[in-house]
Amino acid sequence: MLTPELQEELIHLCWEYQYGTLSPKAAARLEKLVLNHDGARDIFIQYSGMCANLEWEGIVDPGPLGRSTAYDPLSSTELRTLPDYLSATRSTPARWKVMSAILAFTLLIISSALLLYFQFWLDHPPRFLVRVINTQHAIWEDGKRHWSHEDLLHAGDQLHLSSGVVELETISGAHLILKGTSRLIPIEPDRFKLDLGNLFANVPPQSQGLTVETATSRIVDLGTRFGLIVNPSQETEVHVLKGLVEFNLVNADREVTVTRNLTEKTAIRVQPHSRHIEKIESTPECFVQNLNDKAPELVTHWKLSDQESSRIARDSGDHRLNLKIIEAKGKSPFRGQQAPQNTTTAAGPFDSQLYKLYRRLSAAEAGLFHMDRFTIELWARNPNNDRQGDSDTLFHYRNVEQHTTSQFNLFANDHSGRLGFGFLTTNGKYVSHLLDKATKWQKDCWYHIVFTYDANTSASHDSIVTYTRTPEYASEPDIQQTFTKIEDIAPLVPGGILAIGGSTLTDISRHWGGDIADVRFINGIPDRHANIHLKSRQGIHN
Q: 371 and 444 share a domain?
C-alpha cells in the first residue's frame, strides 16, 4: 500500500509526465514506483487513460493535462476511419452494451473526481522544492524553524541559518550549500531568493536555468558551478567557478537594466545604492563546495575599502576579525577604493606610514590560523624605502609577553626593497629569509603578492615556501622564488597582536609606508596558486 508521501510524489511525477517536463532522473523514479507497487501502477494507468480520454473527446482544454497546449482535437466528422462504402454496423450482445455503459459511467465519475482533485492540486501544489541532505554544526536563528536532515522545503518556506553549513538538493538534482549566516527562500522549482549569506551552487545539465534572486540582481546559471555572497548591507558578489552564468542587474521594480554573461574564473561585486558593477578577483575558497573534502578555507579577507568615516577595517570573512586603527592624526586612513584589477585606478588604506591596522587575537581566534599549510595574498604599492629601519612590514604577528621577537612576518627589506619572511620555529628560534632577486618597486604601481607555506611532512626541516610578486598590468610575475628545506612554523600564541602594515603597536619605523589592500589569509593552498608549489614538491622527491 502506498503511503501518503509516495502518493503525493507519484501524482507529481504523473503530472510532469503528462505535461512533458519529466527529467531523466524523475523518469527513472516514476518507472521504479510503477514497477514495484501495484497501487502506483493502477493510479498511473487510470490517470493516463483519463487524460487521454478527456483530451480526445475535447471535454477539457489539455493545458497542464496534455503534452502540448496547442493540441486541437479532431472534429466529429474527422473521426471516421472506415470508407463510406463499407458497412460499419456491428451486432453487439445486450450484455456487452450494459457493461460498456456501466464502465463508461464509472470512468466518467472517476475522471470527474480526478479532474477536480488535480485542479485543486494545481492551485495548491503540495510538492517540495528542495530537501536538506546534510548539515555540519548548523545553528538556526532563534524563533525560526530548525531544519533537519531529509526535511522538505516547499514554496515560501524560509531557511534562517545562523552558523554552520547546510547542503540542499533541489527537485531537479542541483546541490546548494549555505555557509554561515544565511537566509534562503524557495520560490518555485529551481528558483530561490537569497536575502543574506554565502551560497555555492553545483548545477547539473538537467538543472540549467537555476535562478537566484538578490536585492540588486538576478543570477541565472548556464552551467555548472558558481558562488554568491550577499552581505548585511546588500552588497552582492558573484563568483563563477566553472561554466557560464548570466548576471542581471535589476531595479526596484525587478526589471532588468543590465545583463552580462560571466565566464569561468571571473567575479563581480555590486554595491546596493550605486548599482555599479565592479570586477574583482574570483575566490573559490570563500565557498564550501563539498562537505566531504578538506578544501582551502578563507579565514579572513580585509578588503580595506571601508569609507573614510569608518573606525575599523572590516573582515568580510565568516569570523569577522575586524581590525582597529592606530593613527598619529585624527584622520581615517580609508579612501573607499580597492586595489586595481588591471585598471588605472589607485587605491589603498594608508595615507602615510603613520597608519597601521591591528587586532589582539583570543585563543579561539588564534586557533583559526593553520600555520602548517596556508596562503597569504594581498595587493601592495610603494614601500617607504627612504625611511630608516629594519624593514617595511606587510603582515605581522607577535606576542610581546611570550616572545622577544616576531612570531611571523612578511616584509620588504628597508634598503634593498627585497621581499622576505621570518618566523619563530617550533624549536623557539627566529629565522628569516630574503628573496635572491632585488627588483625595484615602480612608482604608483600596484603589485599582487602571494606567499604560500607547506610543512610538507612531519620532518622539521622540509617545509616548502613560494613567494611571488606580479605587477598589476603583467600576466607573469616579475619575482618568483621557491624555498625548500625550511623549518616548521610554530602555531600562533594567543594574546598576540596581528598587524597589517606594521609590526608592534609603537614601532613606526617598521610601518609599510605605502598602500595595502585586499588582504586574505587562507588555510591551505588554492588551486590557482598550487602549480608552483606542486612543481617544487615534485622536485624534492625526484
A: yes
Query: 464 with 341, same domain?
Result: yes
C-alpha cell at 268: 563581480
Q: What is the pLDDT of residues 59-89, one digit of tens each?
A: 544 444 444 333 343 343 433 333 333 333 4
Axis crossing angle, helix 4-19 with helix 24-36, rounded to the nearest 10: 130
Q: Tell me which of 306 and 278 has the higher pLDDT.
A: 278
How does pLDDT run across 502-523, given as a tens digit for each residue?
A: 765 555 456 676 778 889 999 9
Task: Give the pLDDT confidence of 310-325 residue by residue, as tens digits.
Answer: 678 888 887 889 988 7
Q: Both 408 and 478 in a single domain?
A: yes
Q: What is the rounded distance in angstroms from the CA atom of residue 331 to the CA atom of residue 309? A: 9
DSSP secondary structure letter of residue 75: P
Strands 217-230 and 191-202: antiparallel
Q: What does each C-alpha distance from 528 to 145, 240, 268, 285 come to in angstroms?
A: 39, 14, 18, 11
Percent of the chain scored above 90 by pLDDT? 37
Residues in the chain: 542
Residues 340, 256, 68: CA angle, nearest 5 degrees: 130
**3-state DSSP call for residue 434?**
strand
Q: Please give the Cα distance from 411 to 501 (Å, whole number).
A: 9
Q: Which is nearest to 214 in space by CA: 241, 187, 244?
A: 187
pLDDT greater at residue 500 or residue 166: 166
Q: Is 88 within the bounds of a domain?
A: no
For residues 154 and 179, membership in a common domain is answered with: yes
